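Re: export button greyed out
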Amino acid sequence: MPFFCSFNSRDIILKKLAVVITTPPYSNLTITALHYIEAALHININIVGVFFYQDGVLNANSKVQIASDEFQTIKRWQALHEQYQLPLHLCITAAEKHGISDENESGSLIHDAFTISGLGELVELSTNAERLVQF
Amino acid sequence: MTQTQSPKSLALLNSKAPFASCAGKDALDIALVFASFEQPTTLFFQGDGVYQLIQGQNGELISVKDYLKTFSAFEFYDIEEIYVCQASLIERGLSSDFHIDNVQVLNQQEFANKLATHNTILRF
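Workaround output, generated via the alternate export path:
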């Protein structure tokens, strides 16, 4: 279900946006970030990438389970990636600190929608985007 | 970098005390990476963030790796602009006794003006 935004697309001059996520999947702040991103995509703003840092890396953990009657942040990220090819960059140093690695004995805990990245990617995103928004 | 554009200036706004959370270390890592990619990087300290600059701290006494020692490498990384909010120091009864040189104390208006001159602001 799309998030309905109140601003008018003809007022938008912003063309390229990058987003930094620092909050975990069970945080309301992450839900706000998802609504923000969905609203931007809805009016054809080009999101050059989303960068996951600090507790935000937990959004990439494919084993996180959210109760079925709650907002499905994890599934929303995956759906946005599939629907819009939204680049989801995971800071691997932060991820490994949080126990999420692509080299676990039982395989990777990182969902396929996420690209393994580092802070160099954040430099690239901030260079390519006209605006960078942190959640 | 895939595109050659003029570098954007980054402001890192530090608002948390040094050892209770990783916020200061996470901000430091960003500062050093941006600086090594030759992005103009400025550090701001406000609120409890000012504690990151205060002289005479030793994280190892509480078994925390003392990332503050890395601040002395800022010059090497060409991080030359370091600003601290005067009001935050006064509120906490702290003097301008910092463990690195080159820190400039700004009043609230100057601090806000400086912050606004940057393309990107990240807050930790």
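The mean pLDDT of chain B is 94. The button fix ships in the next patch.
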